[in-house]
Amino acid sequence: MLSGFGNITRVLVNPNYRWYLGGNFCTSTGNWVQRVGMGWLTWELTHSGAWLGVIAFADLAPTILFGLLAGAIIDRVDSLTVLRVTQVLSVLQGIGLAVMTLAGHITIEWLVFFATLHGCISAFNRPARMTVVYNLAGREMLSSAIALNSMIFNTSRFTGPGIGGAVIAYGGVGWAFALNALTYLFFFIALMAIKLASDKPETPARKSLLSSTAEGLRYVRGHQGVMLMMLIMMISGMLARPFTELLPGLVDAVFHRGVNAYSTMLILHGSGAMVGAYWLAQRGSITGLTRVTIAFLCVTSLSLIAFSLAHSFWLALPVMFITGAGFAIMGTGIQTLIQTAIDTEMRGRVMALYGIVARAIPAFGALIMGISSEFFGLMTPILVGATLSLGLWVWARGCRNTIAAQVEREQVSGR
After folding, report:
1. Distance CA 368, CA 53 (A)
2. How many domains does the chain have?
3. Predicted pLDDT of residue 413
């Protein structure tokens, strides 16, 4: 445990990383405030599980269109500059959403527009963030830096829904969106305080963006360990992760409660994620991380099966905590293994593909679950997805030694 604390404190010695971490916590908290607001407002406007799926899809799907292009661009230019520019755009998006809502002009169509705009910006913002984290921490501290960043992000999953629920209950959803825009501004200020040498390549790229993008896909396909990790994340993202997008409907239609109950469930989900990310941060080493990551695929699948069968609000609460921890450990573990294994010159493109898998694939799952809920109820799609996810764990368990030999070995080889 003490060595784990040492890993964390060594990362925090870097003042640039502290600026990044503080700003990222602010914007992540605001992002969850916006997410709570969008989900609840969508349900209030439509009372439709399908529309909940559409909003989630609109927010996450643009990553598919622009994610690989963003990665190719980030590998050619300074990643910190990309992050600063996209953060300014995020501030403008947040202000626009807040103004439209406070003025009383918001409709479900406008919500789809703002969700899509947010998704387009995030397609460039998120891979830039991952690349900046690597540049701030370096390979030696990468495992602890990613886990610590995940811990901060998942802490925001605890604070964001709590703040969002309170603001919505006492001030209205428009003020929640305004608060989110303010947190985006705080992150931009933190980014401007970071002093980091440019990671722009010294020689201009001679390949076209299309060729560079194709090269990134070939690289992942040729790296067996990274490819299998991506595949596990893609399938589990389709089957298991989208259940949170249905929570506004579940809280109202199944548990017969209001926005405070919705925020409570998200707080517990975030609390579990915070605990899981902290445990991974103090663990430090990547040795055995493949085994841990795949084991928690089983934990999350079983937890979601229990959730889908628990029609009691109080029984669902501990399940939210467990699934939060499981998803955090899985996501952070996979990102750490991939970041450690890949070549530096391919980082932007590979992490953009990771972003597609992590964000866009769950969007398809949310859309499918949302539409299915119109015909089979809100709980049945979750039960089916969790059961299939458990089958994925059985397959992944048989591949874990092959994956570990590829991705855990790479840290030693110094790639």
Report:
1. 7
2. 1
3. 41
